[in-house]
Amino acid sequence: MKLYSHAQLIKTTLICVIAAVLVTVAICVNYSKKHGSAGAGTGAEVSEISTDGAAGAAGAESSVCVEGADGIENSTAFLEQNPASVISVASAAGSGYTQEEAQNINVYALCNEAVVNINTQVTAYDWFLQPYVQEGGSGSGSIIDKRGYILTNVHVIADATKIYVSLFDGTQYEAEVVGTDLDSDLAVIKFTPPAGMELKTIAFGASKSLKVGQRVIAIGNPFGLERTMTTGIVSGLGRPIQNSNNRIIRDMVQTDAAINPGNSGGPLLDTSGKMIGINTMIQSSSGNSAGVGFAVPSETAVRVVADLIKYGKVQRGTIDATVIQLSRRIAQYAGLDISSGVLISEVNKGGNAEAAGLKGGTEAAYYGSRRDIIYIGGDVITQIDDIAVSSLADYYSALESKRPGDTVTVVVRRNKKNVTLKIKLVES
């Protein structure tokens, strides 16, 4: 038997421990390499995206998209939408797709069947004033409810006598108007899907969490080319833009994603497939995409859709008074020291505005035509809360998100001085 000293025993033990650690590390490294190469070689690794905002390939960009999603989901609980689903495509390692391409493919696969083509018919009149039907406008829409509710723009269905929606499979159905809202240029229409048809829907995302530079995706029907997809970034946020109805829509999302005639009413999506805006207009001298498009934010859309489906109109708060656009001519005639703002012609007797101290005019004057009479000498609204009011468009925009019963701070010009009032709004 061979004898060992105490020092030799300690040395031998240390050597064994170190050897065991090295062997363990080597085994782990080798396993990791094999696991990674197997995923790349077989194409089994996938990029996943689901309607609850979880994207395997989205990374930090998608984490920005879904902030505040709980608030949106609570606000849209009245909608009947598809449950969360997962669509997978091979990742860059297994298929040759880049991460960005995989995300684009995922979003299109998830959402394109929920985008419809909208065509309208309108009534026209010939030289003998006889009515006849002709083709109207066209645009896009998003199916937001399995019962057949579709979100689009007001100007897409304006003056329509008949509205037709075409689905991804080419089938066409006649739709009816549920409600429209000029202040946001949003409308909800509805068709009745056949029994047994399971409609795909698009869920709302949180537009308040958007960041400039974040990638976005538009799907629509430009020039009648159905379910065309374009990509870009968020170019700007909080843009106040005047629409075709001469109403200013605040907090518009600006994007450089190509938006052309026919895209109106279609969804602007984040990389998780959530609708963060409704494509509404472009800024262009030619009428075609010039890299400056605007979308109504999803937070506005959710609020408007809820009222349109429930009431057929948006329950919006207003000041119970008759208002007139102030002009230089009126200001000069009335001897005012300002020429922009909203003139208070009359205040409803016994109403909230009168109780708050708002003053109407006292001197009658003709306005526009000999049949229109306004009253001058009253207050001129120049600000509502923190929004400057220089026109009727500003006035309606400042009240767009207000509800009946809300109290607003109103600054009026009276006797060449600014007066601040607190006015409780009534239903419009």
From TrEMBL:
GO biological process: proteolysis
SUPFAM superfamilies on file: PDZ domain-like, Trypsin-like serine proteases
Domain PDZ stretches: 323-416
Gene3D superfamilies assigned: 2.30.42.10, Trypsin-like serine proteases
Entry superkingdom: Bacteria
InterPro entries: Chloro_Bact_Ser_Proteases (IPR051201), PDZ (IPR001478), PDZ_sf (IPR036034), Peptidase_S1_PA (IPR009003), Peptidase_S1_PA_chymotrypsin (IPR043504), Peptidase_S1C (IPR001940)
Transmembrane portions of the chain: 12-32
Keywords: Hydrolase, Membrane, Protease, Serine protease, Transmembrane, Transmembrane helix
An MF annotation (GO) of this entry: serine-type endopeptidase activity
Family: Belongs to the peptidase S1C family.
Protein name: Serine protease, S1-C subfamily, contains C-terminal PDZ domain
